[in-house]
Amino acid sequence: MFIHIDKPFTQDRIARIIIVLAITLCIILIFRYLCDILIPFAVAIMLAYIFNPVVELVQILMKPRVPVVIIIILLIAVIITGNRLYNHTL
């Protein structure tokens, strides 16, 4: 919603602007309040989006999707754990 200065400010227009600003403020406050809860969901969505092409590529070799997803998750866990163990010993 853009505010055009050339249009007259009627009561209806002012009420709509106030309602939009109030709803926007409420949404921002809700996100700030739920930030700690929403971050893991956002990370999970990003990881699913990133690893979907890998799962589809491996799924060509293995038809069932569930074993492919489990294999990809285990490979990622091994890579992360191995990287942490390697960097910890240095």
SSE blueprint:
Blueprint: H1 11-33, H2 35-61, H3 65-89
Helix pairs in contact: 2-3
Sum this structure up briefly.
With 90 residues, the protein is an all-alpha fold.
Query: Would you report the number of β strands?
Result: 0
Mean pLDDT: 84
Structural class estimated from helices and strands:
mainly alpha
With helices defined by DSSP (H or I, 4 residues minimum), what is the helix count?
3
Report how far apart the termini are: 56 Å
- Beta-strand percentage range: under 5%
Q: What percent of the residues sit in helical stretches (DSSP H or I)?
A: over 70%
Whole-number tally of structural domains: 1
Radius of gyration: 24 Å
Residue stretches low in confidence (pLDDT < 50, at least 5 long) are: none
Principal-axes shape call? elongated
Reading the helices and strands in chain order gives HHH
Main sheet record: none
Q: Could you please describe the fold and organization of this structure?
A:
The protein is built from 3 helices and no strands. The relative contact order is 0.05. The longest helix has 27 residues, at 35-61. The chain is mainly alpha-helical. Helix 2 packs across helix 3 (65-89). It has one domain (11-89).
